[in-house]
């Protein structure tokens, strides 16, 4: 039970000294010393909590790298410096031992072209030092290394033939082959490479033009930018088909991130749009909207709202539950608030993190065992459900004593509010325990916007969504995205039939073009 708190003398964030002095004089004159002690102690406690929170936020913002959320590092942060140093020393010793067991250099990929260079013995060393005869070749020892032939920029000079009849005035010229940009200065291969460099390698158009300039080639950013836009527009049917596959029946997951939009009509010239990432099995669709509201979710779903959509605790998607759908929660989001509390020095939060760690241990075991959806459900029912019962008891116990506005209190409040959604993964093995996959997919956007900074108007956001959908779906299907873009752009430019568009999607393209397949670790297009 909560007890009524004594009214605060002043704000702990901006204390009014004169107000505190006047209040103390008034209370001393009335001999109300117990109330003075209670109020002053409470003010000090609130200032301590506020100071702890602000110090933690300041440390969080000053970090050069994203803070780790692993339980081991959180525990280490709360250790005394001496014990922490001992642990670090043990880790360094262990890593040194592990290096001694290195299996050796891995073989280079067998599918790569081998360029043979013979390293022959110098003529001055080919004479036998004992008899003076010329020595003969016995053999070669082989040494392989990975190298690269730098890209060459060339000028394609196309000679369009014209033929004429020797008997009359009939003249026929060769048909001009189609291009991404009709009669454009830049070739199709160059444009597709520019698209891949920007949206796979996150290299802005201006930086690509600077690279051309260093080679003595003048390509205006406006020219290359318009060519990139034309290439993405050419691929729009592929992106639309991927969107339809993502929207098809199955378990949906979504998350959103902001994207800066350069708009001269905006007060500061820049406004913020929203990029939604939707996944369904191996299909990934990025969906741009000027606003991150529920209407943007409705537009993507085409009002097919009775769906299972995994997401975080945002209120934007609560209308799905009112329509009869389900919204499984994310245990990473639930855990993250306890991590924030532990990072601020709260050891009680570590108790909850240790319990949640056992949930993730069950998920790892299911993944390593290659469980089917039903096997995963049975494993969760046997091992995860008792852990969740224990966690529920811990939450109820701590919520009775932890103030709700502290970092730990906010974490407990989130778990309490989202509890019914966080339990949905127990009944369906297809539902993931976290929404981490959507966050990983959104990294493509986040890394890109740190480099190319803006999209031009809403149409730029839509183009960005289309090309990211294609790249992400290729990677999910273990298709080389760069090679895929080259192949599909060429086929579409040469009038691939629209009724056979399904054959060009990443899940079907490997049937006719198995060379596009790459291993899981090579699918990033690097």
* Overall outline: extended
Poorly predicted runs: 1-5, 80-84, 521-526
Class from secondary-structure proportions: alpha/beta
Strand percentage, roughly?
A: 5-15%
Query: How far from one another are the termini?
Result: 59 Å
Considering DSSP H and I runs of 4 or more, what fraction of the residues is helical?
Answer: 40-55%
List the secondary-structure elements in sequence, H or E. Answer: HHHHEEHHHHEEEHEHHHHHHHEHHH
Largest sheet: 5 strands, mixed
Number of strands: 7
Features:
single chain, 526 residues, alpha/beta, five-stranded mixed beta sheet, two-stranded antiparallel sheet, disordered C terminus
Explain this structure:
Among the domains are: 129 residues, no CATH class; 187 residues, no CATH class. The N terminus and C terminus are likely disordered. The two termini are 59 Å apart. The chain is extended, with a radius of gyration of 32 Å. By secondary structure, it is α/β, with parallel strands linked by helices. It contains 19 helices and seven strands. Strands 3, 4, 5, 6 and 7 form a five-stranded mixed beta sheet that branches. It has a two-stranded antiparallel sheet with strand order 1-2. 24% of the residues are buried. α11 runs antiparallel to α12.
Q: What's the quick description here?
A:
With 526 residues, the chain is an alpha/beta fold. It is built from 19 helices and 7 strands. It has helices spanning 17-29, 33-62, 71-77, 81-99, 188-199, 205-214, 221-234, 236-247, 294-301, 319-322, 331-343, 348-369, 373-399, 407-417, 419-422, 436-452, 457-476, 481-493, 506-512; strands spanning 162-164, 171-173, 252-262, 270-280, 283-289, 309-310, 455-456.
């Amino acid at each position: 039970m909560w007890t009524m708190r004594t009214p605060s003398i002043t704000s702990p964030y901006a204390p009014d000294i004169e107000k505190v002095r006047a209040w103390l004089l008034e209370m001393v004159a009335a001999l109300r010393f117990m109330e003075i002690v209670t109020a002053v102690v409470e003010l000090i406690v609130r200032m301590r909590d506020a100071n702890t929170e602000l110090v933690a936020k300041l440390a969080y913002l000053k970090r050069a790298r994203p803070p780790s959320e692993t339980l081991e590092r959180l525990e280490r942060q709360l250790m005394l410096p001496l014990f922490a140093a001992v642990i670090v020393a043990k880790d360094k010793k262990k890593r040194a031992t592990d290096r001694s067991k290195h299996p050796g250099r891995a073989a280079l990929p067998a599918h790569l072209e081998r360029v043979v260079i013979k390293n022959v013995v110098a003529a001055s060393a080919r004479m036998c030092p004992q008899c003076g005869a010329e020595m003969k070749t016995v053999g070669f020892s082989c040494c392989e290394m990975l190298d690269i032939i730098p890209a060459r920029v060339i000028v394609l000079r196309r000679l369009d033939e014209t033929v004429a009849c020797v008997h009359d005035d009939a003249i026929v010229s060769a048909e001009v082959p189609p291009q991404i940009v009709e009669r454009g200065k830049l070739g199709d291969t160059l444009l597709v490479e520019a698209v891949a460099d920007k949206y796979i390698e996150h290299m802005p158009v201006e930086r690509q033009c600077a690279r051309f300039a260093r080679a003595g080639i003048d390509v205006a950013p406006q020219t290359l930018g318009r060519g990139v836009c034309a290439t993405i527009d050419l691929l729009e049917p592929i992106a639309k088909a991927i969107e339809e596959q993502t929207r098809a029946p199955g378990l949906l997951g979504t998350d959103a991130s902001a994207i800066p939009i350069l708009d001269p009509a905006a007060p500061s010239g820049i406004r913020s749009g929203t990029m939604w990432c939707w996944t369904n099995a191996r299909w990934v669709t990025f969906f741009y909207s000027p606003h991150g509201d529920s209407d943007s979710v409705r537009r993507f779903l085409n009002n097919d709202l009775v769906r299972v959509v995994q997401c975080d605790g945002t209120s934007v998607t609560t209308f799905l539950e009112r329509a009869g759908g389900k919204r499984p929660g994310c245990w990473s989001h639930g855990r993250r608030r306890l991590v924030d509390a532990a990072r601020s020095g709260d050891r009680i939060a570590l108790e909850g993190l240790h319990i949640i760690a056992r949930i993730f241990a069950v998920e790892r075991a299911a993944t390593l065992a290659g469980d089917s959806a039903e096997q995963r459900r049975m494993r969760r029912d046997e091992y995860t459900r008792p852990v969740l019962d224990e966690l529920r008891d811990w939450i109820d116990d701590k919520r009775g004593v932890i103030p709700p506005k502290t970092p730990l209190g906010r974490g407990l409040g989130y778990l309490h509010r989202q509890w019914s959604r966080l339990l949905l993964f127990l009944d369906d093995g297809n539902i993931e325990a976290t929404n981490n996959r959507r966050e990983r997919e959104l990294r493509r956007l986040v890394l890109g916007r740190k480099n190319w900074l803006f999209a031009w108007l809403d149409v730029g956001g839509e183009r960005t969504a289309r090309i990211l959908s294609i790249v992400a779906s290729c990677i999910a299907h273990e298709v080389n995205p760069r090679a895929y873009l080259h192949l599909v752009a060429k086929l579409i430019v040469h009038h691939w039939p629209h009724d056979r568009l399904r054959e060009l999607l990443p899940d079907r393209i490997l049937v006719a073009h198995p060379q596009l397949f790459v291993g899981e670790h090579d699918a990033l297009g690097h």
